[in-house]
Amino acid sequence: MKRFKWLIMSLLVVLTLQSGAWQVLATPSKDITIYLDGAALETDVSPYIKQTDNVTMVPLRVISQGLSAQVAWSQPTSTVTINGNGKMLSMTTGAGSALVDGATVQLDSSVEMRNGRVMVPLRFIGEQLGLEVNWDRSARTITLLSGASAPAPGEPAETGDEVSASESMRGAWVSTVNGDWPSTKNSVSAQQQEFSSMLDDLAGMGINAVFVQVRASADAIYPSNTVPWSKYLTNVQGKSPGYDPLAFMIEETHKRGMEFHAWFNPFRANTSASSAGLADNHVAVQHPDWIVNTGAQLYINPGIPAARQQIIDDIMEVVNQYDIDGVHLDDYFYPYSGTFNDDSAYASYNDGGLNKGDWRRDNTNRFVQELGAAVHAANPDLQFGISPFGVWRNKADDITGSDTRAGVTAYGTTYADVRKWIKEDWVDYVAPQIYWSIGYTAAAYDKLVSWWSDEVEGTNVKLYVGHSPYKLGTSEQGWQTAQQIIDQLQWNENYTEVKGDIFFSAQYLRKNPLGLISLLQSYYHE
């Protein structure tokens, strides 16, 4: 009997312990939240505590984007290198120590991989970067204090000595198609707050101009008499957002001493090959005979004179009604890929007997010349510029082309003869998209800057260089450290023809890839 009671009691103890353990496992802990000087840091992977070492581990992205440190991860050696606040840290997976400015420092826990993500010890790194680190166990929050006072909400950040865009262009493209703005649809206050916050962030980095996509697909982010409202404002093309975004943006931009350039995508009619969802007053509905379906997108045919003129009229509506600082076109003339059936237009409008390639370039030339003339007739002080593909022609195709081996070119693929635009003085600036690293095999950044500088030398056309921070952290040659962008800016200093830079795009600057923000701030404010 005593033995039976003992067995019953033992079972009860075991069941109680198992039940308690199960409850601990079944009830998930609240996610850890990290604050830096009162602002929550975003993490795409939840931080966790290593119970064996009582160390909080966070994704490496928190260090680069949240703490504005420059980071680099070496896959072959499983080593992470962190630069910030004048210190260099190096940690290797499984190692019991780290290197801090070359000196060995013992670690409770080192860098480790979890579910394919690089995780690092927050307290060690934070304290090494000069932060005060406080852990609230009950609230499961970590508070990081830098000792710097943050600007009040809505107050523009201090930017140091401001440099105007006319002295040195420091621009950022703001795309409505690719996610720069707006992230919220159908909310006036949310869209306005988001844009104002973006301007503050950009100004804090040293950016002095924004190139905002006001026409993405033959539509508008302003009330227009000729094209429908953009679907990127409300999810429905043709639906009013309840305010004039363009007027608001211009006012907010100028309030911060920054320039506002209206960016138009000239010939793209839709980002897909379908006409479903297009408003009744969209060009593809009103003039289907002007449209070419490439198989991937809808394009307005540059070979039809009336179509070209309509686009010019659309753009001039903004020029005549808004206080913009410039008209900016991207590289959407003819498509980079797909089938472009313009045989009918070629037969109807090729009065000069040109071959197809030269005829297409002539169409583009006429459009650029006529638009530039209209812009400058309306406002001689307004800047008119274009951002073409970064390679005009390869040397293999034209001895005067660049020493590159690009698979596509501005001249032969999009039929943009940028050299002619420069020589004819049809544009105020060109901003070639030189989206490759220094020394890149097929198209080296350094070689292309030199080539474009030679093209504008002795002309009235300024050269701005288009940069690609969106490539930082990718596997492409040269983009494993944010120093690549700084090296490019420093390389540009060798050429007096380079009058500034434009970054694609605002969201990638704000994401602080590999710690780019602090590097830009140091470069622009040095």
UniProtKB/TrEMBL annotation:
Residues 147-157 have a biased composition (Low complexity). Residues 147-166 are annotated as: Disordered. SUPFAM superfamilies: (Trans)glycosidases, Copper amine oxidase, domain N. It comes from the Bacteria. InterPro entries: Cu_amine_oxidase-like_N (IPR012854), Divisome_Glycosyl_Hydrolase (IPR052177), GH (IPR017853), GHL10 (IPR003790), Mao_N_sf (IPR036582). Coiled coil: none annotated. Residues 36-143 form the Copper amine oxidase-like N-terminal domain. Keywords: Signal. The keyword Lipid biosynthesis does not apply. Residues 1-26 form the signal peptide. Residues 169-475 form the Glycosyl hydrolase-like domain. This is Family 10 glycosylhydrolase. It comes from Paenibacillus zeirhizosphaerae. The lineage of its organism: Bacteria, Bacillati, Bacillota, Bacilli, Bacillales.
